[in-house]
Amino acid sequence: MNDRFFPTGKPRAVQGGIKARSSRGAIAQTWWGERFIAVLERAGIGGRLQRGKTYARKGQVISMEVTAGRVDAVVQGSRPKPYRVRIGAPAFGKAEWAAVESELAGSAWYLARLLAGEMPADIEEVFSKVGLSLFPKGPQELSMDCTCPDWGVPCKHVAAAIYLLAESFDDDPFRILAWRGRTREDLLAKLTIASGGGAPAGAGAAAPESPDVPLADLLDSYFTLQGALPGPSPAAAVGILVQAPDVDVTVRGQALTALLAPAYRDLAD
Amino acid sequence: MFAVHGFWSGDGLSLWAEDSDLPTSTSSQAVRSVRPHPFAATADALTGLLPGTPTTAELQLPSQRSAPLDSPELLRVNPRRATRVDPVLSSWRVPAVRLEGAAGLAWLTDPGQVAARFGASVTHLRDLARFARDLAERGRVLPAVTPTGTGGVAHWRPVLQGPDALAQHRLVAALPPVSRAAGGQGDARAIVDEALHRLTDAAVRERLAEAGSLLPARRGRRPTVEPVADAWLGALTGPDGRFAAPPDGVARLAQALSPWAQLGSGEDEPARATFRLVEPPADATPAVDTPQPWRLEFLLQSTTDPSLLIPAPQAWDGGGPLRRWVDRPQELLLTELGRASRLYPALATGLRSARPDHLDLDHADALEFLTVAAPALDEAGFGMLMPNWWRRRRPLGLRMTSSTPTDAAATEGRFGRDQVADFEWRLALGDESLTDAEIEAIAATKAPLVRLRGQWVAVDPEQLRRGLDFLEREGTGRTTAAQVLALAATHPEDVDLPLRVSGIEADGWLGALLAGTTAEQLEPVAPTERLRANLRPYQERGLSWLTFLSRVGLGACLADDMGLGKTLQLLALEATERDGTDEAAEHLPSLLLCPMSLIGNWQAEVRKFAPHLRLHVHHGPQRLSGPDLTDRLAETDIVVTTYSTATRDIDDLEPVSWNRVVLDEAQAIKNRHSRAAKAVGRLQARHRVALTGTPVENRLGELWSIMNFLNPGLLGSPETFRARYAIPVERHADTDAAVRLRQVTRPYLLRRVKTDPAIIDDLPEKIEVKQYYRLTTEQASLYQSVVDDMMDRIAGSDGIERRGNVLAAMTKLKQVCNHPAQLLHERSAVGRRSGKVIRLEEIVEEILAEDDRALLFTQYAGFAELVVPHLAARFGTDVLYLHGGTPRAARERMVERFQSDQGPPMFVLSLKAGGTGLNLTAANHVIHLDRWWNPAVENQATDRAFRIGQKRNVQVRKFIGTGTLEEKIDTLLEEKAALADMVVSDGEGWLTELSTGDLRELFTLSEGAVGE
Predict the structure, then answer these.
(1) Which residue range(s) make up the domain with B161?
(2) Least CA distance to A236: which residue of chain B?
(3) Contacts of B147 in chain A (CB under 8 A)
């Protein structure tokens, strides 16, 4: 509204900034991403997020860090010095997390889904059971600051950061928990200990694949097969699309998976 | 002779070849630089041999100072001398041809007839291409995008999980070093990945070519800039995946698709979750069932050491020995279970505890897991430990027992297909009919999984109810034998019954036919006394079987091994049947189709075994047509013709009502689209017979073609046959489908192999076969000009000079019969210029199909040097060659190699060098490529294989060109057999004593010598 009081020069280009991947449609693709956006919408700022979209897509966000209770982002605007953006929400305390963790420890389901990249649908109940809310209840719990001179709340820099934050929650649901005060590592350590597991082993991970034998050592069998060829494969059981995680790609308004389905039928014929 | 090798680089396949005719060494001693490969096939030779764009490649090959070593596939008539110097790697430049993506896939899938031998690198790539096609057909692919400077490339990548990841590992491990020999090549894994990726992409595009673009119709106005995703999706079909788009748009698309990138990318976790289904204890009766008697246990299995299986409780306690590979087993187990719950949502219940280690299932859950979830989890790469019985499960089905009434009146005197049969249906488990008590017990339990006779059986209560209803209403009745046979051949899915048909059983001849035991059970049919042969017991059984199927009116495929006398059995059938029919019956001729090269054989065999049968050869430019043909048929028993003549004259042959149509070497109609296959389908006959030693040469579709000729419609349409039998059996090694196909075809197929203990005692130790063939037109005209020229010379000479001329004439004529190139001293491709070589290829094909080994004798080094590389290239195998100049040590090595278990299947020997002192009992075939008019010499050679230590029967073949001097001298020898031993004991000299008139008679080509 008051943008015009300030120079509206083009934002400076950023090398290697974080770029939003969705090119159209809703910001968040998962239910938990949507829940996060819904909180903002209840705060009456959902609609204004669109302002940050172009910024987010261009890669104006230089960096973003999620820590307990806050998200710090650095966003390049039209001025030489990038702006600092902070999105705050109160993190849960030690005691509160202990209560949550003891609930989570009773059922491996939550962690299993989280590790497989999904926020389990019923995890909100776990928090509400101990009197907490996983997502900020409303605008009063959220604080948004930016060092730019723009008065609009949120300004496009904050909006761009929120936009990317929603995407990063989609990618890794553990980040929401980190924002609320528990990193993935802490949580895993607490939960595996809580469920009786030992400390992580010090031994190295899988041995690297042995590199190829040098050609010069194979002169005796240079022209021959070095092992048996694979035999015929068993028939297919399920389509790959069932197994594939969701992707956010639409073509002419239709979901990619829907458009690909007939191709997989043609392949089988 | 060429040996073709290949390697994959970048987007395409490169092929190069060695040529054994080129000199073996280079003059360049510049060991450190890249030298031209001295015996690599030239660019010209290569483009004549293979498709693709000419190019060159630099290869590192094991070499001596002045030359690379030969690949084992390269066959030299005169082997290079072995040196004691250890080989080193040197760089060589070779001409090559390059085939990009789709063209590479096409060539690897079907290279066609290439006059060359393929090296292991080509074999490897061909298997890789097969795998790529297979992945495409099974939909184990996902689309992806790779950014380029001006946009992106849309491509399909293979998704490798579980068994497919294993297959890829094997391809990497098996890669021959020469496949990595091209300059700047990556490691084995990178090469296989790249080739697989590119070939899979090509295979997907090929399969989607028909359907066209995946892009949906545009709604609304056309945007000014085409969205990146549109361009990408559009580029996923069509020949080229490249598309233009702004780079950041492509990057965003790649980001959006990133969740797919990890799936089946071939990067393994150190361990994977494995599921074990544990069945309820055996003593639990349905009545005292716990509500959830099945247990699905979770385990972790090490990828590095698959034998290491850790049950979930142990993983929770720290992982035990798995700790060697896995840092945090608990976390890995949970991640895996979380991933699995996506495919198997019911798993959630099992995860609702602090340390989940199993899931309890009721019968319905267990059934759902077995049928739906397990295959999906297996394919997604999870481990599956299923109860053993599940793999051998037999479904609940219906089984028919039919019996033919013994009461003669009830059959109304009818026999054969129209014969009446009573039938009864029963519930059955596989082959076993269920008792009434068992049926009651199943009906009483409401569970979908029921334990029955030691196995668990899936029972759909609704289906069971309808099945029992059916048994009540239509469980018994009366039908005809023809209908029972038709039902037995029908695929279970096509039978309109509430449960699948699990078996059909019958008594009497019908039962024997269905069980495939007809030949053993029949009353033997005595051959007519006019047949001039003593049938061996198995041949009598064959005759009985043919006679029986003929009487019942069913088409028969006699598929005995070569050398067991299919021709004789067929002639016995014709002779015996014709002898038995009364005079009043209508006379119908039989039509026999065979390859051109076999006409002479049939003529000779009829002459020998059943001279009273009236034979007419319908072949050649002077053949009859129209009324002339009809008149001739009225007084003919058997008409012999070739497939191509019959195809050409089908309009003349179609209206004839034949007694029987016989296809010899029936694989000639293996391609159902071929003109010959279509033509034979139009012939009208009372009975049909196919003779073949190899009913399935390459693909099951060939069997379909033969069976469809014999009994049209029996195996359904070609499309359903492909879907139900060919694809499951060929591509997925599905044993159920294979067993079913065997069941369906066995009433109509009789196959005896010569290694069968029941046959082997019946066989003589040595079978001598005269192998007739016909000259090609080129051979015939060459033959004629040699005769003209030499007869002039003989007539104009006497004494020693005349003798010399006679012997020279003989030699030249024998050479023409072998191959024109031998007489003309040409070094050109063998091609299809010699009737003898064409026939030889057919015979070798059968010998190899039966996994046998052969000795091939010739008197002429020139012919051996022609045949050895040709056979090696044509059949992709080593061919040993021993001649007078072979050093003693090499001789011994060759003999040892031939006699070893994995020895080469063919050994060419010069008659003189190989005549004595060798023990070659690994061979059970002896082929005399040309004749030595001295039986003693031939017999001595034959005895190489036929010696102490020979455990099998030996088949001896002598080539005889119809109408040539080969045939005439053979006849002469036969007629004077007693005399011959004495007269001709000193070689071929006796021939020179013949008068000029006799010689002219002997040399002149008689009628019927030329093929088409």
Answers:
(1) 2-207
(2) B138
(3) none
For chain A, positions 174-193, list CB contacts with chain B under 8 A. 188, 192
String of DSSP letters for B739-758:
HHHHHHHGGGEE---TT-HH
Determine the distance in angstroms separating the CA of A141 from the nearest CA of chain B, rounded to an integer: 31
Does some domain include residue A47?
Answer: yes
**Number of domains present in the structure of chain A:** 1
Chain B residues within 8 A of A206 when measuring between CB atoms: 268, 270, 303-304, 325
Residue B275 lies in a domain: yes
Does B305 lie at the interface with A, CB-CB under 8 angstroms? no
Is residue A11 in a domain?
yes
**Residues comprising chain B, all counted:** 1012
Question: What is the count of structural domains for chain B?
Answer: 5
Question: Would the pLDDT of A117 be above 90?
Answer: no
Interface probe for A, chosen from B156, B339, B349 (most Cβ of A below 10 Å), is: B339
CA nearest to A127, candidates A111, A149, A104:
A104
Top residue of B172, B205, B219, B255 to mutate, by most chain A CBs within 10 Å, is B255
Confidence bin at A3 (pLDDT 50/70/90): very low
- pLDDT tens for B51-85 read 999 999 999 999 988 889 999 999 887 777 777 78
- The two tokens of residue B937 are 């010499």
Q: Reply yes or no on whether the pLDDT at A77 is more than 50.
A: yes
Instruction: Pick B260's closest partner by Cβ from A22, A239, A247.
Output: A247
Mind listing the pLDDT tens digit for each residue in B848-885? 988 899 999 998 988 998 999 899 988 988 999 988 88
- Tell how far CA B515 is from the center of its chain: 25
Nearest to B353 among A107, A236, A253 (CB): A107
Q: Is the confidence at residue B455, as pLDDT, over 70? A: yes
Pair (B835, B903) in one structural domain: yes
Domain boundary among B710, B740, B760: B760
Neighbours of A111 (CB within 10 A): 24
B157 pLDDT higher than 50: yes
Q: In this structure, is residue B266 part of a structural domain? A: no
Q: Which of residues 720 through 749 in chain B touch A, CB cutoff 8 A?
A: 728, 730-734
Pick from B460, B464, B470, B459: nearest CA to B425: B470
- Chain A residues in contact with B228 by the CB 8 A cut-off are 23
- With CA atoms as reference, the chain A residue closest to B72 would be A223
Q: CB-based contact (8 Å) between B876 and chain A?
A: no
Residue from the list B211, B249, B335 with its beta carbon closest to the beta carbon of A266:
B211
Encode pLDDT of B314-355 as tens digits. Answer: 888 877 777 766 777 888 899 899 989 988 999 999 899 888
- Residues 6 or more apart in contact with residue A200 via CB below 8 angstroms: B327, B328
A226:B256 CB<8 A: no
Domain boundary among B331, B363, B391: B391
**A219/B728 Cβ within 8 A:** no
Q: Is residue A156 situated within a structural domain?
A: yes
Does residue B302 sit in the same domain as residue B167? Answer: no
Alpha-carbon gap: B718 to the closest alpha carbon of chain A (Å): 14
How large is the greatest C-alpha to C-alpha distance in chain B, in angstroms? 111
How far apart are the C-alpha atoms of A74 and A86, rounded to whole Å?
9
| B363, B426: one domain | no
In chain B, what percentage of residues exceed pLDDT 70? 93
More confident residue, A12 or B722: B722
For an interface test with B, which of A168, A190, A224, A259 has the most B Cβ atoms less than 10 Å from its Cβ? A224
The pLDDT of residue B854: 94
**Domain membership flag for residue A66:** yes
| pLDDT of A199 | 40
Q: Taking Cα atoms as reference points, which of B608, B601, B609 lies closest to residue B617?
A: B601
- Cα B205 to Cα B236: distance, rounded to the nearest angstrom: 7
Residues B105 and B180 occupy one common structural domain: yes
Does B243 fall in a domain? no
Q: What beta strand segments (E) does B579-648 contain?
A: 590-594, 615-618, 638-642
Residue B154 forms part of a structural domain: yes
Backbone CA torsion sign across A47, A52, A58, A63: negative
Among A206, A221, A239, the residue with its CB nearest the CB of B304 is A206
